[in-house]
Amino acid sequence: MINKLPEIRIVKKYVKAAGAIAFHTQKNFRFDNRNYKDDGSVLTQVDKNVENYLYKNLSLKYPHANYIMEESPVSFEVNKPYSFAIDPIDGTDVYSQGMPGWCVSVGLLDGNLVPVGGVIYAPAWGLLISVESSGQIRVNGRDLIPVKNLPPESPAANVMISSKIQKKVDVSGLNGKLRNIGSAALHMCFHLIYPGVVGTLGHGGYIWDIAAAHAVNRAAGTCVRYLNGSEPDYEKLCRGESVGGPYLTGSEAFFRYLSRVVKVLDTFP
């Protein structure tokens, strides 16, 4: 049994290289090179190329891991000591339109399927967020000092939202502003970096969308939780089930506030 978890500094090296590949390719990407999956989400050849690069290099270094990937499913084995959840381009739609709000995201789960590490890299913004092997959060090589956010009920507060959240919940009770830049992983971390952002209201997605950002929030002591108070079930997520929703990321005060003012619509499945 391999008990020692992978070193995040090594994972970071490959994620940065993968991000450089995607960033260079985006400069010459044509909008009509987009393809679509059965669920209507955007897919590009860049997603596959970046995922192949990460899988090839990480699996050579860490052959005992599970690899849970968006574009190339591999069977999940419960007895493996740790797992990587790989999103080659989180925010493919905005990536394919030449916009900057995308990232490469790799989350690390321990043998109990707890998100304990991760790397999130947004090369268009020069933003690198990681949870190191020590449990310390680092942003662009420096230890994170979490910002003091606005009160969640402030009219100036920003809530990061998923692109179709207005079809799933009634957000008219929120006092603040709603923002979306494309990447779920970035959304989930912004409240730790930017004082005007108080949290995230998302829905849908899969394990590769949230695992790395969940590790960041665990290390920061903030929550990732559904509106009903339950937490993501990683046993189900590792088997390919959807994250579902709606889910929140932020402080306990943010969770209490949104639980009070956000209403789930009857149309939510």
List keywords for this structure.
269 residues; Fructose-1,6-Bisphosphatase, Chain A, domain 1; D-Maltodextrin-Binding Protein, domain 2; 5-stranded mixed sheet; 16 strands; 30% helix
Task: Give a structural overview.
There is one protein chain. This protein is α+β, with helices and mostly antiparallel strands and 269 residues long. It folds into 2 domains: 136 residues, Fructose-1,6-Bisphosphatase, subunit A, domain 1 (Fructose-1,6-Bisphosphatase, Chain A, domain 1, 2-Layer Sandwich); 107 residues, D-Maltodextrin-Binding Protein, domain 2. The protein is 30% helix and 25% strand. It is built from 7 helices and 16 strands. The N and C termini lie far apart (41 Å). 44% of the residues are buried. The mean pLDDT is 91.
Topology:
Layout: H1 8-26, E1 35-36, E2 42-43, H2 45-61, E3 66-69, E4 83-90, H3 92-96, E5 103-109, E6 115-122, E7 127-131, E8 137-139, E9 142-143, E10 158-161, E11 169-170, E12 177-179, H4 184-193, E13 197-202, H5 207-220, E14 223-226, H6 234-238, E15 247-250, H7 252-261, E16 263-264
Helix pairs in contact: 1-2, 4-5
